[in-house]
Write a structure and sequence with these properties.
Bound molecules: nicotinamide-adenine-dinucleotide, zinc ion
CATH topology of the largest domain: Quinone Oxidoreductase, Chain A, domain 1
Number of helices: 11
Order of helices and strands: EEEEHEEEHEEEEHHEHEHEHEHEHEHEHE
Strand content: 25-35%
CATH superfamily of the largest domain: Medium-chain alcohol dehydrogenases, catalytic domain
Number of strands: 19
Number of domains: 2
Largest sheet: 7 strands, mixed
Length: 363
């Protein structure tokens, strides 16, 4: 099969012929129908984060089960599934408490070290699967706890977005921050993740939703998806603009870019008792600085959100129902559709801030 491989950091993706093993016990072989481009992979290609190489990248996919290993009862060949990088062991303290996205036992859902690799390149070298998925590929071989079964009437290209971006954005709103109806919300960054957070805030019944970005076309899409106000961060301090729009600050701020500057902005635009949720992957080694007196005197919260604090086997089918009921807008989020060979071009478009979400479709 063909897959997009990262061989060095920083580096571009290379389309390679890759061999894929048969499913072992507890594994699922999935034919990928669509795979979305998330910014997280780009941080690794750009050298801001490190991962095990060589690796098949990608982590936002939907497809059809092709074969299952011994003992797999959750899915069968022909089932439609979405993959999720929050592969859960089901046994650790975090899994038991429902916090699958911070499962502390990744060894339990990986193949044993030293054994046959799930993927190998043409030279016979073992290939890692980025995020334990490796979704920029025609096929994926994953642990059964990496997939959720979905309704067949859901189009798989739009289902792929739920594999990361939508679950991350909606989950940050519903599960991490728990936005209440009537509250005032700001979202910094209107890419795939930020637009999903904006939609989450709309669905949660926020009264004001302020989208902040540096490009006007993104802000237009943000309005279409639910933003009641927009702020162009190139036209003055976004914190001051948000404070002016809300008479002092928002109840909930979401950072969906990944930088020290915008993370700190999220905190500074809160009103007392406000909650800032950091979604973006700031470069490894980044430290945030917060004004201590505001933290305690204003009783403000600064928290992180990993994959929207998901319980994805519950959340993803619900998000599909929201889409099929017309409440979650996914068609409007897809700005580009490409083939696997065009993947570096797809990421160039993201670097240039020209995309909301790009989806690779496989024939
Ligand atoms: N926490 C998680 O589990 C999780 C999951 C998925 C993605 N992420 C991270 O979320 C972030 C967003 O991902 P994405 O796929 O939506 O990226 P994206 O590139 O599609 O969107 C980023 C947006 O930020 C805007 N932007 C850039 N600099 C800005 C600034 N200074 N002020 C305002 N807007 C600015 C860009 O114009 C763009 O619209 C990335 O860091 C990604 O790694 C985190
Ligand atoms: Zn992602
Ligand atoms: Zn666990």
């Amino acid at each position: 099969m063909r897959a997009a491989v990262l061989n060095q950091i920083p580096g571009e993706l290379e389309i390679e012929e890759v061999s894929i093993d048969k499913p072992a016990a507890n594994e699922v072989l999935m034919r990928v129908v669509a795979s979305g481009l998330c910014h997280s992979d780009l941080h690794f290609m750009d050298g801001l984060w490190q991962t095990k190489l060589p690796a098949v990248m990608g982590h936002e996919a939907a497809g059809v089960v092709e074969a299952v290993g011994e003992d797999v009862t959750y899915v069968k060949p022909g089932d439609h599934v979405i993959s999720c990088l929050s592969v859960f062991c089901g046994k650790c303290r975090y899994c038991l408490a429902g916090h699958l996205s911070i499962c502390e036992n990744p060894g339990a859902v990986s193949r044993p070290r030293g054994g046959a690799s799930r993927l190998n390149n043409a030279k016979g070298e073992a290939l890692a699967q980025f995020a334990r998925l490796g979704a920029f590929a025609e096929m994926m071989l994953v642990h059964e706890n990496a997939v959720v079964k979905i309704r067949e009437e859901m189009p798989l290209d739009r289902a792929s977005l739920i594999g990361c971006g939508v679950t991350t954005g909606l989950g940050a709103v519903f599960r991490t921050a728990r936005v209440e109806p009537g509250s005032e919300v700001a979202v910094i960054g209107a890419g795939g993740i930020g637009l999903s957070a904006i939609q989450g805030a709309r669905i949660a019944g926020a009264s004001k939703i302020i989208a902040i970005d540096v490009t006007a076309p993104k802000l237009d899409v943000a309005r279409q998806l639910g933003a009641t106000h927009v702020v162009n961060a190139t036209e003055g301090d976004p914190v001051e603009q948000v404070k002016e729009l809300t008479g002092g600050g928002v109840d909930f701020a979401f950072e969906a870019i990944g930088s020290k500057q915008t993370g700190e902005q999220a905190f500074r635009m809160l009103r007392p008792r406000g909650v800032a949720t950091i979604i973006g992957m700031a470069p490894m080694g980044t430290n945030f600085e917060l004004p201590a007196h505001e933290v305690f005197m204003g009783e403000k919260t600064f928290k992180g959100s990993m994959m929207g604090s998901n319980q994805f086997r519950l959340d993803m089918p619900r998000f599909i129902d929201l889409y099929l009921d017309g409440k979650l807008m996914l068609d409007e989020m897809v700005s580009h559709r490409i083939k696997l060979d065009e993947i570096n071009h797809g990421y160039d478009l993201m670097r240039n801030r020209q995309t909301t979400r790009t989806v690779i479709t496989f024939d």
